[in-house]
Amino acid sequence: MSQVHLGIWKDWRLHVIVFLIVVFAEFIGTHEFSVGPGVVLLLPMLYALLIGLGLYFTPAVKEKQSKNAEPLIVLGVTLLIAKIGVVIGPSLPQIIEAGPALLLQEFGNLGTILLALPLAVLLGLKRESIGMTHSVAREPNVGLIMDKYGFNSPEGRGVMAIYIFGTVFGAVFMGLIAGFLATLTPLHPLSFAMASGIGSGSMMAAASGSLIGSFPEFENDIIAFAGASNLLSLSTGLYMSMLIGLPLTEKMYQLMTRNKAGKGQS
Amino acid sequence: MLKNIQEWIILLSIFAVVSLAANWIGYDVMPLSALPGMLVLVVICLAGLIIQRALPYKIPSVAYIAIIGILASMPWMPGSSTVVAWTSEVQLLALTTPILAYAGIAIGRSWTDFVKLGWRTIVVAMFVLLGTFLGSALIAEVVLRFQGII
């Protein structure tokens, strides 16, 4: 954000389009439907993302608008962070009390290795799976993999693939599953609130937004815990994957592919 | 620096106007009653952006912005109750709608990359996000229960 792209405010076409999208999305409002015992929440922000994406393929949005929109996401996230800050402030005593849970749930990011790596190997992906599953593949993790394996390595392609998916559909996906899992499983909404902070502003917003929609009685606690957890993830995420995530993924990958090779021989 | 500050003010104002509309239509808060809170948030953002530029450390501006927000609303800070009362009129979800609208327009350009990914990648990607989310929630649940918070 320090490098400001001067003159973006003059792109009235972009701002008017966004204004119309937002008005339209908010006008449709929040809708929910049940799938089994869980509830899926459709929030205005999800329509806004999909309408924006759709409009890119119409003459209404040109390449220029799409480029100018990018720094504005970052600016919007700063406003969101300011809002989260003023919700964290009054809840500070509670957050300090819940501190150990906040710190320890950062290790939950390793859940991605345990769940997704075996699946990737099972689907026949090779070393791509290391880049794909060592973390949630946000910017710092992409940097780490590129630094270690290079841009044109299988690991590099893997991390980029997940990065692209997360960029395009991460917020929608997190928004849809957060409320659903919180209503489906016996886990407490506050645990899911902490889990929402995975180190991406838009995914955190979508996931915690769905939680607020499903559990409005916990609104401020959800914002405060998700926000605090996201800030923690942003500052520790890189070290987490550098020191624990990536070495663990390498080890597990070697173990799993060795077993597979052994079976193939017998 | 001065040019940047002007640019930030104009862009944040545009963002504020769109969010106030979302706040009105989606959450029934009249723009006038949400305006003081929105101004407080814009000022916090500006302060964070300016501090980030003025100090030599390489810390992202969101870190400063979060800290300023927390400091301004801590219970033992004078005037914090006003800050909290005003900003509580600005719904979090009203801020996220414009962010994701800009995001939708921006990610259109990644669409061709996305189409090339193939179904295996998409399955793995969903499990990557699911794994983090469930893993963190499980640990948080155990620790929060152990502490007797939930």
Automatic annotation (TrEMBL), chain A:
The chain crosses the membrane at residues 12-29, 35-57, 69-88, 108-125, 161-184, 190-215, 222-246. Keywords: Membrane, Transmembrane, Transmembrane helix. The keyword Membrane applies. The keyword Ligase does not apply. InterPro entries: DUF3100 (IPR021450). Pfam families: DUF3100. This is DUF3100 domain-containing protein. It comes from Jeotgalibacillus haloalkalitolerans.
From TrEMBL, chain B:
This is DUF340 domain-containing protein. Keywords: Membrane, Transmembrane, Transmembrane helix. It comes from the Bacteria. It comes from Jeotgalibacillus haloalkalitolerans. The lineage of its organism: Bacteria, Bacillati, Bacillota, Bacilli, Bacillales. The chain crosses the membrane at residues 7-27, 33-52, 59-77, 83-105, 117-140. The keyword Transmembrane helix applies.
